[in-house]
Write a structure and sequence with these properties.
The chain starts with a helix and ends with a helix. 37% of the residues lie in helices and 22% in strands. The chain has a 6-stranded antiparallel β-sheet with strand order 2-1-5-6-7-8. By secondary structure, it is α+β, with helices and mostly antiparallel strands.
């Protein structure tokens, strides 16, 4: 006990602005703060995961046009049917539980994904399986289908959803729920006016050729989305990622199968 008292006394008598005392105090403070941060991170992780899931559900509701302030997100989201699609076969699969399947993790798993040689969306690897969401009408017929999309912009990978009408060609909406693009420039992908352009645009022409385009100049009105002003690289990124996921290496085979009743 006397030894500890002596140590405390020696520490107390050290010069307040001395190097040794400063280092000891700083080290102790860092240790305590790291313990507090670690404790908070571990104990709040489950809450963070729940909040992330709710935010994702909210974005699906928004892109499908069924969200409004004060809505019960969980209750409304229950009307959507999540299903896992095998992108290689273009058909639904029951290998995974669609309610918990993680597309992002699957894309990093060599057993569940492929490395891309032709990679316009700059994603490196593409998952072989993806979770899609069906919204049906009261009579059980298809109302809308929500497809996950992602790809690299200027500074970050943009993660979002595209909603298609029941003809699987007309776009109802597009929305990103995660990105780190430049505020006021690339981040204008979140601007309601820009997002509103997507509604009613067509993915493919009458011959089934993918025609949707984000560009400065308009070639075909029914397929054209204005590029973001001052954000050429982000606009190019969105153009590339939409074309990739709506093309032959993405959901095109599945959408054709679904249209023909072969999914």
């Amino acid at each position: 006990m006397s030894d500890s008292n002596n140590i405390f006394t020696k520490f107390k008598n050290m010069p307040v602005d001395g190097i040794v005392k400063t280092v000891i105090v700083a080290t102790a403070l860092c240790f305590v703060c790291s313990m507090v941060v670690s404790f908070a991170a571990v104990n709040l992780k489950s809450i963070q995961e729940v909040n992330k899931a709710i935010d994702k559900q909210k974005n699906i509701l928004q892109v499908a046009g069924v969200y409004h302030e004060g809505i019960d997100v969980n209750k409304t989201f229950s009307s959507f049917q999540p299903l896992v699609v095998d992108l290689n076969s273009g058909k639904f699969t029951d290998k995974f539980d669609a309610s918990i399947f993680d597309d992002k993790k699957a894309a990093q798993d060599p057993l569940l994904s492929i490395s891309l040689e032709n990679d316009p969306a700059s994603i490196g690897r593409r998952t072989n399986y993806a979770t899609i969401y069906l919204l049906k009408k009261d009579d059980g017929s298809l109302d809308k289908i929500i497809l996950p999309i992602h790809g690299y912009g200027l500074w970050s990978t943009l993660y979002g959803f595209i909603a298609l009408e029941n003809n699987l060609n007309d776009i109802f909406g597009l929305q990103f729920y995660q990105h780190a693009e430049t505020p006021g420039l690339g981040a204008e992908v979140d601007n309601p006016k820009w997002k509103a352009q997507w509604k009613g645009k067509k993915l493919n022409n009458e011959n089934g050729e993918l025609m949707i385009q984000v560009a400065k100049t308009q070639k075909y009105k029914e397929h054209h989305i204005d590029a973001l002003a001052g954000a050429t690289l982000t606009s190019n990124g969105v153009d590339n990622l939409v074309k990739f996921w709506m093309g032959k290496d993405g959901f095109k085979k599945f959408l054709n199968n679904l249209k023909n009743g072969a999914a």
